[in-house]
Amino acid sequence: MIAAENIDAAVAFVEIGALVLLLAILARLAGRFGITAIPLYLIAGLAVGEGGFAKINVSEDFISIGAEIGVLLLLLALGLQYSQDELQTGLRTGMQASVVNFVLNALPGFAFGLLLGWEPLAAVLLGGITWATSAGIVSKVLADLGRLGNRETPPVLNMLVVEDLSMAIYLPIVAALIVGGSLLATSINVAIALGLVTIILLSALRYGQHFSALLVGGSDEALLLSIFATTLLVAGIAQQLDVSGAIGAFLVGLAVSGPAARRAAALISPLRDLFAATFFLFFSFQIDPADLTGAIVPAVILAIIGIGTKFATGWYTASRAGVGQAGRARAGVLIIPRGEFSIVIAALGSELVDGPELGALAATYVLITAIVGPLATKFSDRIPLPSGMRRRAATTASAS
Amino acid sequence: MAQVRETKLPGVGVRHDFTAATGAEIGVIVHHDGRREILLYDDDDVDASSSVIQLSPLDARTMSEVLGASQVTEVVEAVQQHIEGLAIEWLTVPANSLAITTSIGGARYRSKTGASIVAVIRDHQSIPAPGADFRLAVDDVIVAVGTVEGVAALRQIIRPN
């Protein structure tokens, strides 16, 4: 009996070890080329997954729960990086740009889903997939290229704050819609979800400081364990009530502020890297290559639209802040990449009738935009603009 | 002194920037984790910046000491010259000080000595006009204002020897 378990454990160790080794090589490769590793993880998942060249047997359960934890940690880390001050500034200054962002990016995705003949709910999910810029990729690109100081950066970051907060409303609604039922039951579910999010959000803003003060005292070990435990508990309860667990984790991140948030972010980031990589791998791992071939043409069309609309959004956002033409172009290409949120949204829809196609389309779409975006950003300084334009832009900016 | 503008960078930190006397646009990003980045803005494209120097929290402290030390004494001398009969003193709270056992109000410094604690500098951040319930800590720098005798009396209480 024990011998059999030993063999199982040994197989699991080897499988998980091999997978993580693969992830490590990809992360290294991504670093070499200065791009984010997310697209590489997705490609790797396709290669080892359903119908791919290798099969995972024993450890699939473990990897699937690891992937779920990865989503929670991704969103927790996202919430941790915002202070309440920054949320308020974001809401105050980023609202108008965010409405434009929603209209230009979510609606085309939704319409495209309907054109593909999908059920409305799958189209709503596709709208979310095309809407959500990858905050993770954007902040990495900004830091890598040394563009944090640029004047187009604050308006873009403020817009992304509102986008992230919008996800805290969008995801629970979608989660409630997926559970479905009669019109009445669904509306009750949506109302419960929104009510719960509002309650958690308000208490996070109101009592967050007490919670943070409670956390900050102990050792690093105690802090790591308490934040991990809180995240899992809140996410679990949220999930139980059919509110997305990921949003529960996001709200926990928002609730923690000040020194506790900074320490927690530093402690959680290695865990997040490990589990989030697992999540991306496991997501594309479940995609059937047959669905993938069908997804390529629509994904390319959708990506071209999505690159155009995000560029327009960035251009508009930067121009409202009085930034010149060159800066507007930089802002436009900066927000092209879609990433973690889009995959989280696609994963929500995996149970739908159109779920498999949605997953394949989302993976391809994220692959394209996550690769094109950072590359375009790198070369955005070389986008030719008439020299007179730069000068004129400079004077407008200083006048405003 | 040039006016310093502050801009929040959600998820990153805060950016401060100002126009130097030479006309150069200089920025400093204070990251949430304490790293500082010194930036210079482009002449041709005022929106673009390049990161010139990256400093760890410790480096930033060293840098500010090097840049700011002489400036601090200048300011103090200026104050002493301009206000006759008024003494201003910067006092560091030593580890054995009794001042850390009670709040400023509880120790009744002003009624005992006539000198007021107008600001406290803690970890390179100044706390102007600390309230009666403010507690001093070891290594805080107190900025005290009063008569020469009053400030001397306060010094006796804060650092007895």
Integer count of domains of chain A: 1
pLDDT below 50 for ≥5 consecutive residues: which ranges of chain A?
386-400
Radius of gyration of chain A: 21 Å
CATH topology of the largest domain in chain B: Alpha-Beta Plaits
CATH architectural group of the largest domain in chain B: 2-Layer Sandwich
Residue windows where pLDDT falls under 50 for at least 5 positions of chain B: none
- Regarding quaternary structure, what we see is heterodimer
Quickly list its features:
heterodimer; A: 400 residues; mainly alpha; Na+/H+ antiporter like fold; 16 helices; 0% strand; globular; B: 161 residues; alpha+beta; Alpha-Beta Plaits; 2 domains; five-stranded antiparallel β-sheet; four-stranded antiparallel β-sheet; 4 helices; 34% strand; elongated
Describe the structure.
The complex is a heterodimer of chains A (400) and B (161). Chain A is mainly α and 400 residues long. Chain A has one domain: Na+/H+ antiporter like fold, CATH 1.20.1530. Chain A is 82% helix and 0% strand. Chain A contains 16 helices and no strands. In chain A, helix 7 packs across helix 8. Chain B has 161 residues and is α+β, with helices and mostly antiparallel strands. Chain B has two domains: 60 residues; 76 residues, Regulator of K+ conductance, C-terminal domain (Alpha-Beta Plaits, 2-Layer Sandwich), CATH 3.30.70.1450. Helices cover 29% and strands 34% of the residues of chain B. In chain B, the strands form two sheets. A five-stranded antiparallel sheet of chain B has the order 1-2-3-4-5. Chain B has a four-stranded antiparallel sheet with strand order 6-9-7-8, with helices on both faces. In chain B, a hairpin with a 2-residue loop joins strand 7 and strand 8. The longest helix of chain B is centred in the middle third of the chain and has 26 residues. Chain B is elongated. Chain B starts with a strand and ends with a helix. In chain B, 24% of the residues are buried. The interface between A and B is medium-sized, with 38 and 23 residues.
